[in-house]
Amino acid sequence: MDLPGAEFSQLQGESELKLPPSTGFLRLPNFLKRKEKGVVFGAPLTEEGIAQIYQLIEYLGKNLHVEGLFRVPGNSIRQQALREMLNAGADIDLETGDYHPHDVATLLKTFLGELPEPLLTHRHYHAHLKIAEMTLFDEKGNKTSVPHKERQIEALQLLFMLLPSANRSLLKLLLDLLYQTAKKQDKNKMSAHNLAIMFAPHIIWPKNVTASDLQDNLHKLNSGISFLIKHSQKLFRAPSYIKDHARMLFTGSRTPQSKDDMELCSGTVSRTRLPSKRSSDEHDGGGQQQQHHTQDALRDLFNHVTNMPESAKKKKLIRQFNKQGTPVRENTRPPSNTKHGRSRSLGGLIKKKVLGSQLTVTGTSQTKEATKGSSASSIKRTPLSPAQQSSLSLP
User: Fold this and answer.
1) What local confidence, expressed as pLDDT, does residue 362 receive?
2) By three-state DSSP, how is residue 233 classified?
3) CA 94 to CA 3: how far, in whole Å?
4) Most buried among 90, 104, 210, 266, using CB within 10 Å?
5) At what angle do helices 218-230 and 165-183 cross, to 10 degrees?
6) Cα 252–300–274 angle (5° rounding)?
7) Do 382 and 353 contact (CB within 8 A), yes or no?
8) What pLDDT does 342 receive?
9) Where is this region: Disordered (predicted)?
10) Where are the beta strands (DSSP E) in 9-165?
């Protein structure tokens, strides 16, 4: 996306926003309603507010057949009653027949129009205009008027990843609803283009501007919202190359991972073999390097756990290590002034003695014979006497 420096810095939040100037009258209804700061209406977007508004979206999803949905206005008295109940955090039973789908549809648009900033945010305004200009090129390299749908979808996927989580959640719910509405246009007479005209002022227009202020960009904005509705089922996925890059970064990380992360990682690697920084080492005969790296990381983690103060959490972690059969306890070399516990094998015990420079064994053949044993006895950290050495015999 080719954004000028100033507009790009606004998108990144590095500079102050510069909104299109307003030369006409403010939209009076929204201007007055914004004075009423309720729990939901006119307040900043929150997950709690979305949970309340979802009652309207869920009800409308069951009434998509109503002709003129979102175009025909509802009853203002019933809308005010609904508004007060939503602001009070009440659960509303819209199936009683006391409210008409037109009441609910109009109230949903009112909620969007009273947000402190558009659902797509002021920072993303210029980016959406640039996305609408992405077109194909002809054989001579000249720009055509045919939209480049693949590039537009990819740009929108990346842009939506930058949205605040609450905006993204509500946008997905809303676009899913409008997508399903457009699919039933044979009954409700509301195509994606008609819906875009209804919703563009509420989700993308900068606040306090009129259609005349946006005359030059009005077609781009309406076409952009129509494009969002038609392709809404693809826009909330990350591009494939972003997934591959994140997967590569994840598998190459030395950070200890949770059980869920490990399962995800193992499942992903089994499906696709991804290049990594260690791939050249593996091709050069260094296939064991990755295994040693994993063992080193496990030993470091185990040492960290053993150095923790005594607590129930520490005991739980130790039990998890033992349950998984992680060979960290045997491979970890303790400090020289620490007494060794009982070894599971005589070979492991002799290895510890050699590492501690405390064991003197004469004869190479005797050492080779001792390392093949499998006894559970223990030896003190003192040089062995000839009599003790002679008693050290294996079957």
Assistant:
1) 45
2) coil
3) 45
4) 104
5) 80
6) 15
7) no
8) 47
9) 252-295, 309-395
10) 135-137, 143-147
Q: Packing angle between helix 125-132 and helix 218-230, nearest 10 degrees?
A: 80
* Torsion angle defined by CA atoms of residues 177, 153, 203 and 14, in that order, rounded to the nearest 10 degrees: 140
Instruction: Name the phi and psi angles at 146, rounded to 5.
Output: -85, 125
* CA quadruple 41, 46, 48, 54: dihedral, nearest 10: 70
252: left (phi over 0), alpha (psi -120 to 50) or beta: alpha
Q: Which residue has the tokens 């045997």?
A: 330
pTM of the model: 0.57
In 3D space, the residue among 335, 331, 383, 339 whose CA is nearest the CA of residue 362 turns out to be: 383
229 within 8 A of 178, measured Cβ to Cβ: yes
| CB distance 301 to 307 below 8 Å | no
3-class SS at 135? strand
Token look-up 């038609």 returns 230
Low-confidence ranges of the chain (pLDDT < 70): 1-38, 252-293, 324-395
CATH topology of domain 5-230: Phosphatidylinositol 3-kinase; Chain A (1.10.555)
- Smallest Cα–Cα separation from 128: which of 197, 205, 201, 240? 205
Q: Which of 97, 104, 103, 96 is nearest to 52 (CA)?
A: 104
CA 201 to each of CA 131, 206, 210, 321, 381: distance values in angstroms, whole numbers, following the listed order: 18, 8, 9, 58, 82
CA–CA separation, 228 and 156 (whole Å): 9
Please count the CA atoms within 13 angstroms of the CA of 158 that sit on its side-chain side: 15
Measured distance CA(247)–CA(249) in Å, rounded:
5
Which residue's structure tokens are 């409210």?
Answer: 99
| Residues 7/124, Cβ–Cβ less than 8 Å | no
pLDDT at 207: 85
Domain boundaries of the chain, sorted by first residue = 5-230, 294-332, 338-395
